[in-house]
């Protein structure tokens, strides 16, 4: 049971939390042993953390060099290592609430055979103070501690496949509300990727050793101290001429750079934009780029941890953005859940820089011509295709991309695949492609795949008088659909996207709409409000009546079962009895228990709700006592 660690914010596998000691530590955090001070000597290789650092730099003789602790005053001095039982039997200490005590352990290096690890695997002692257990990918399990120390971490850092396999295995095995500590591996260049993968605690051991070896570390790599004719950093350690800058100063700089990089990662997690950052920053080291690409292939691991909605903008600056969970999830739902309900032709238009598209000047010109005589779908990289009803739905109005006027081969392949799957699911009497020349290759590829023909209307540019005139002519004779049909189809389309195929018809068979875009309100035939489309996310939020209607309908329901109490404001994880596995952060959920019925928005995934002992499982929007 986790008593001294709690997660507050999630950005994929990355988290912001708090190690709840006497002096709380915000995570992800830089930590060191509780005895560290400005005059302490370098620790000998006698414990799990120092041992890990020594493994990563075997040529560094840290046992014989007395040094000032460069991390003193920067890293949180909270670790108390009971010691290795390879040396002697260890008694469980008394512990205290000021330190995180690493319980007696037998750490093993990376690559140790499974049978050896199994033979020496132990069970952590149950204690009533903040504690951590030392585990490997083969021995990781719920030991009831607040944190877990990965044994042999230096053996996998630097190797993308081994690192991703180890981290995902360990994170799945230990409780989701516990902290993961990787000792002896963090540098300014790799710490953001460590956090992105799900690491909560790191130390400065590797940065210090590298500094005393003459390696000047930065977020974009390292330089040899002897090769520097000027110091590119403005930290306190670098405020001296290069000729006076020695190994001790270099170690101090490395710690400062690591701490700054960790603060950047922590801020990015808070903003929900860590992935944007590492897509650029990680490219300075090949293994880091390989690592986040390998993580993209771990769909189950990342998808379960990635929020369904958020307000942060996605910066689509690299082709790696195409593999992001948010992008793939949107494309999957549009091509597998969404159903077009209009009987009119399809007009494919290019995206716009301004979001939502309908507020842009170019889309205003398209609308003036189309005038509800066709169903519009915007084609874009990296999103794919966006039906007009979903232009507010995350991430359709929450991204910005680099516009070069040329599509890469990967972009063409991805968008063409999405458009093809979309058209295989949705029938139209005619498809009009009002797109510029660089979009045309995508349309032609889909034409060939579907053995059909599109009508092309653009001459030179989509907004020229001639092009708009061609579009108008292509729609000649088409009748306009009314406001009622448009609004009803929008609400139902959002329900399909949010809850599953056919959910819009199951939930809103008898529907009245009040309000206007973007905050359409869904009412039943008796005037009872059921839901509203949220302005920030473009998803449905239910009232209590809507939640009861949801439960009674055939639409897939996401439920959180709670103990006999009436929650107000939020449901904490200890009060959750059960939760559906497919719940994701940001999902609309029904909250049910012997004493209450409510509805709200999930703050944890379903599996995390049931496995956690701390933290907010769901916000509660409406609740009534039963």
Question: Would you give an account of this structure?
Answer:
It is a single chain. With about 625 residues, the protein is an alpha/beta fold. It is built from 18 helices and 30 strands. Strands 4-5-6-7-8-9-10 form a 7-stranded parallel barrel. Strand 14 (about 345-350), helix 11 (about 360-370) and strand 15 form a beta-alpha-beta unit. Helix 3 (about 160-175) crosses helix 8 (about 285-295). The longest helix has 25 residues, at about 245-270. The relative contact order is 0.08. The model is unreliable at about 40-65 (pLDDT under 50).
Task: Name the features.
globular; alpha/beta; 7-stranded parallel beta barrel
Percent helix range: 25-40%
N- and C-termini, Cα separation: 31 Å
* Average of the residue pLDDT scores: 92
Enumerate the spans where pLDDT stays under 50 for 5 or more consecutive residues.
Answer: 38-66
Number of helices: 18
Which term fits the overall shape?
globular
The tally of strands reads 30
Structural class: alpha/beta
Any idea what the radius of gyration is?
28 Å
């Amino acid at each position: 049971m986790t008593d001294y660690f709690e997660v507050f914010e999630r950005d994929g596998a990355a988290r912001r939390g708090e190690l709840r000691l006497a002096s709380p530590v915000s995570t992800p955090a830089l930590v060191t042993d509780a005895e560290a001070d400005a005059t302490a000597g370098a620790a000998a290789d006698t414990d799990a953390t120092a041992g890990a650092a020594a493994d990563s730099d075997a040529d560094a003789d840290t046992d014989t060099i007395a040094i000032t602790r460069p991390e003193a005053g920067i890293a949180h001095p909270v670790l108390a290592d009971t010691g290795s039982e390879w040396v002697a039997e260890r008694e469980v200490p008394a512990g205290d609430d000021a330190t995180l005590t690493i319980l007696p352990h037998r750490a093993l290096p990376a690559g140790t055979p499974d049978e050896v690890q199994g033979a020496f695997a132990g069970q952590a002692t149950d204690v009533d103070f903040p504690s951590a257990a030392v585990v490997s990918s083969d021995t990781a399990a719920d030991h009831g501690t607040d944190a877990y120390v990965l044994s042999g971490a230096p053996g996998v850092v630097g190797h993308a496949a081994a690192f991703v396999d180890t981290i995902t295995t360990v994170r799945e095995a230990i409780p989701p509300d516990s902290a993961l500590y990787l000792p002896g591996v963090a540098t300014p260049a790799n710490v953001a990727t460590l956090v992105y993968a799900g690491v909560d605690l790191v130390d400065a051991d590797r940065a210090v050793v590298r500094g005393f070896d003459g390696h000047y570390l930065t977020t974009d790599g390292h330089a040899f101290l002897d090769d520097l004719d000027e110091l590119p950093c403005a930290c306190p350690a670098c405020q001296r001429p290069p000729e006076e800058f020695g190994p001790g100063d270099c170690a101090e700089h490395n710690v400062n750079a690591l701490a700054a990089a960790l603060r950047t990662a922590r801020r990015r997690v808070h903003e929900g934009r860590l992935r944007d950052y590492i897509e650029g920053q990680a490219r300075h080291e090949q293994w880091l780029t390989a690592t986040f690409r390998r993580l993209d292939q771990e769909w189950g691991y990342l998808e379960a941890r990635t929020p369904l909605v958020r307000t942060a903008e996605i910066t689509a600056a690299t082709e790696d953005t195409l593999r992001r969970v948010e992008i793939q999830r949107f494309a999957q739902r549009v091509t597998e859940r969404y159903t077009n309900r209009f009987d009119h032709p399809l007009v494919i238009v290019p995206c716009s820089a301004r979001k939502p598209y309908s507020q842009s000047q170019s889309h205003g010109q398209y609308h003036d011509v189309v005038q509800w005589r066709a169903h519009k779908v915007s084609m874009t990289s990296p999103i794919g295709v966006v039906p007009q009803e979903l232009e507010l739905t995350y991430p359709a109005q929450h991204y910005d991309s680099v516009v070069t006027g040329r599509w890469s081969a990967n972009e063409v392949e991805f968008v063409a695949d999405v458009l093809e799957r979309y058209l295989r699911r949705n029938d139209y009497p005619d498809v009009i492609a009002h797109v510029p020349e660089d979009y045309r290759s995508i349309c032609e590829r889909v034409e060939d795949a579907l053995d059909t023909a599109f009508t092309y209307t653009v001459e030179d540019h989509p907004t020229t008088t001639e092009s708009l005139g061609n579009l108008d002519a292509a729609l000649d004779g088409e009748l306009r659909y009314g406001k009622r049909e448009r609004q009803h189809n929008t609400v139902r389309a959002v329900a399909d996207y949010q809850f599953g195929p056919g959910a819009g018809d199951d939930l809103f068979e008898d529907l009245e709409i009040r309000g206007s875009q973007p905050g359409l309100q869904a009412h039943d035939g008796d005037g009872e409000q059921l839901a509203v489309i949220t302005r920030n996310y473009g998803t449905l939020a239910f009232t209590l009546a809507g939640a009861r209607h949801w439960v009674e309908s055939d639409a897939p329901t996401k439920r959180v079962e709670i103990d006999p109490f009436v929650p107000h404001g939020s449901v904490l994880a200890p009060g959750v009895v059960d939760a559906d596995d497919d719940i994701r952060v940001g999902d609309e959920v029904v909250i049910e228990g012997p004493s209450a019925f409510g509805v709200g928005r999930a703050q944890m995934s379903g599996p995390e709700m049931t496995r956690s002992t701390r933290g907010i499982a769901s916000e509660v929007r409406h609740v009534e006592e039963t």
